[in-house]
Specification:
It is a single chain. With 122 residues, the protein is mostly beta strands. Strands 2, 4, 5, 6, 9, 10 and 11 form a 7-stranded mixed β-sheet that branches. The protein is globular and about 40 Å long.
Length: 122
């Protein structure tokens, strides 16, 4: 079983940047597609970004295209989410999961972790 721990969240002002990390332990994630999701207060959890096993193919929600970049370092068993030009509506708890390769947007196995809080203020 793979354990995923998200980190890097914080409080920033509109237009700021943050880099989230998702560190895996227990087994390697190098052969899996990975995804980032978020849940804002009072809203359902939603897909943010996905990346295939090699990093050569990525997928983004329309709301973050051009602002967020997902990447991975398989040697470090870690996935990243670089978030630029942050908006108030990006405020949420961010989670990472192993995702299916077909769409790279739906969790494949495992469960939701603690996530990392991102708060963007104007």
């Amino acid at each position: 079983q793979v354990q995923l721990v998200e980190s890097g969240g914080g409080s920033v002002q509109t237009g700021g940047s943050l880099r989230l990390s998702c560190a895996a332990s227990g087994r390697t994630i190098s052969s899996y597609a990975m995804g980032w999701f978020r849940q804002a207060p009072g809203k359902e959890r939603e897909f943010v970004a996905g990346i295939n096993w090699s990093g050569g193919n990525t997928n983004y929600a329309d709301s973050v295209k051009g602002r967020f970049t997902i990447s991975r370092d398989n040697a470090k068993n870690t996935v990243y989410l670089q978030m630029n030009s942050l908006k108030v509506e990006d405020t949420a708890v961010y989670y990472c999961r192993v995702v299916g390769i077909e769409t790279m947007s739906k969790p494949l196995f495992g469960s939701w972790g603690q996530g990392t809080q991102v708060t963007v203020s104007s």
